[in-house]
Design a protein that fits this description.
The complex is a heterodimer of chains A (about 400) and B (about 60). Chain A has about 400 residues and is an alpha/beta fold. In chain A, about 25% of the residues lie in helices and about 30% in strands. In chain A, a hairpin with a 4-residue loop joins strand 5 and strand 6. Chain B has about 60 residues and is α+β, with helices and mostly antiparallel strands. Chain B has a single domain, classed as Alpha-Beta Plaits. Classes of the chains: A alpha/beta (about 400), B alpha+beta (about 60). Chains A and B meet through helix 7, strand 23 and helix 8 of A and helix 1 of B.
Chain lengths: ~400, ~60
């Protein structure tokens, strides 16, 4: 029996890698390792349908986990180290697992606030168990939920909590939500969206501390401006860090993620995919690391093909360079972004208007189109995504976009 | 092949339209329309990609 291809991380990227290995005809052994004890699942519903109580967990099991892919599944087992010279993984408890090739797909872990206390009622949201713990607290109808961070996860949690009829305060250190991604003007649109749905939105102020009731349960959140907000539930949504601790000292290059080449190869016999993979994008002329659903799907597939090219000489290595895309559902609005954007970009509204919250904005930099952002405009976002594939000047893109409106 | 969309799951993200505009169209009412319920075989790779990349896994292929 040859050594298996080991996939560490059985979430979206890892399971798409497993699916692709089989689809490409690889019939050798495949071992999947994941510390999360749950059957592999899809994460977007964790801040929406599952948190809302509309869906039960069995509904979010990943399709690849229902397929008969003939995988050895070490679910609930943690990979603690890798020896690249010997091609051996060390698992929790000290067991060793030899591998022929390795897919690194351990994703990311939620960041915490500095000095964040360990109090009941204080949550992060990343795993299904995180979601169910938060949901159980929401089921008790807290008098107020404080969400720290108005990024995509924080905004979706706030929207879901409002949908459950709960009072919500959102605290965001930046002057508007999503400023780093969308810039000041469209970040303001997101701020208005929250406020129109009854959220108490505190902008431009950080959290000084989270205080307990003396019995181990959260009681309030102290802000840097001195305000104190009573809270029975606090959700900390201040971003994630790539889950690479177990790879320290392995010889892989770690720099805010696992550094790969443009084919997702991180070392001989090792590929990376998903939230932790950092690779150079030719299209955007920068190293990217994306925490998007679709990126995890596409990278899982591409990384699996890359590994087969490496191990079996099957096919030439492909350059991974798609146009990134993601979505976020908040209240009755669907936000979508194709490509790249940022506060330092030019922004032009080309379809619809921000007043009706149904519009498309183009993001450009140095005269080039870089991104297409839509609010409740899925049709036009997908149509205009092709301009990013082709590579268009910002002015031409704006003119073309106004034509399709 | 027959293209089947579960409209209880579909959220009109329009990913499918980006991949196979010959088969899928999200219109200005934000609803998805299947333009060809029985697309020709040469579109199968695109339709399969749309099935894989649908964020809601709302599309499936049934064989005729």
């Amino acid at each position: 029996m040859p050594d298996p291809i080991a996939i560490v991380g059985a979430s979206l990227a890892g399971m798409h890698a497993a699916h692709t290995l089989r689809k490409e005809g690889y019939d050798g052994p495949v071992t999947v390792v994941d510390a999360d004890p749950r059957a592999p699942y899809d994460r977007p519903p964790l801040s929406k349908q599952v948190l809302a109580g509309e869906w039960e967990p069995d509904r979010i099991v990943l399709p690849a986990a229902r397929e008969d892919l003939d995988l050895e599944q070490l679910i609930g087992r943690r990979a603690e180290a890798v020896d690249l010279d010997r091609r051996v993984l060390t698992l929790d408890g000290g067991d060793e697992l030899a591998f022929a090739g390795l897919v690194v797909a351990t994703g990311a872990v939620p960041r915490r606030l500095p000095g964040q206390p360990d109090l009941a009622g204080v949550h992060v949201l990343r795993t299904l168990d995180d979601c169910l713990a938060l949901r159980a607290d929401l089921d008790r109808v807290p008098s107020r939920v404080v969400v720290v961070g108005a990024g995509f996860i924080g905004s979706e949690v706030a929207a879901t909590c409002r949908g459950r009829g709960l009072e919500v305060t959102v605290v965001e250190a930046a002057p508007v939500p999503l400023e780093r991604v969308l810039g000041a003007r469209l970040g303001q649109v997101c701020a208005d969206l929250h406020r129109d749905h009854g959220v108490d939105l505190r902008l431009g102020v950080g959290v000084a501390g989270i205080d307990g009731d003396g019995e181990g349960r959260v009681a309030s959140v102290r802000l840097a401006d001195g305000a104190v907000i009573d809270a029975e539930v606090v959700v900390v949504g201040v971003g994630v860090s790539p889950a690479t601790t177990w790879l320290e000292g392995s010889g892989l290059t770690l720099d805010d993620g696992v550094v790969c080449d443009e084919t997702l190869l991180a070392a001989p016999g090792v590929v990376a995919a998903g939230d932790l993979a950092r690779w150079p994008s030719r299209r955007f002329g920068e190293r990217l690391r994306l925490e998007h659903w679709e990126n995890a799907v596409q990278q899982g597939e591409a990384a699996a093909r890359r590994l087969l090219a490496e191990l079996e000489g099957a096919g030439a290595p492909e350059v991974f360079d798609p146009v990134p895309w993601f979505w976020s559902d908040q209240y009755d609005r669907k936000l979508q972004l194709a490509g790249r954007s940022g506060a330092d970009h030019d922004v032009e509204i080309v379809v619809g208007g921000v007043e009706e919250r149904r519009f498309v904005a183009l993001y450009g930099k140095q005269g080039r189109l870089r991104g297409v952002f839509g609010m409740n405009r899925p049709r036009q976002v997908m149509q205009l995504r092709t301009l990013l594939v082709e590579g268009t000047s910002f002015d031409d893109a704006c003119a073309a976009a106004r034509q399709i409106a | 092949m027959r293209v089947v969309v579960d409209y209880d799951l579909c959220e009109s993200n329009a990913v499918c339209m980006g991949i196979a505009p010959e088969v899928f169209e999200v219109r200005d009412d934000d609803f998805l329309y299947v333009l060809q319920e029985h697309p020709p075989e040469e579109l199968r790779p695109k339709v399969e990609e749309a099935v894989q990349r649908c964020p809601k896994q709302a599309i499936r292929i049934e064989e005729d």
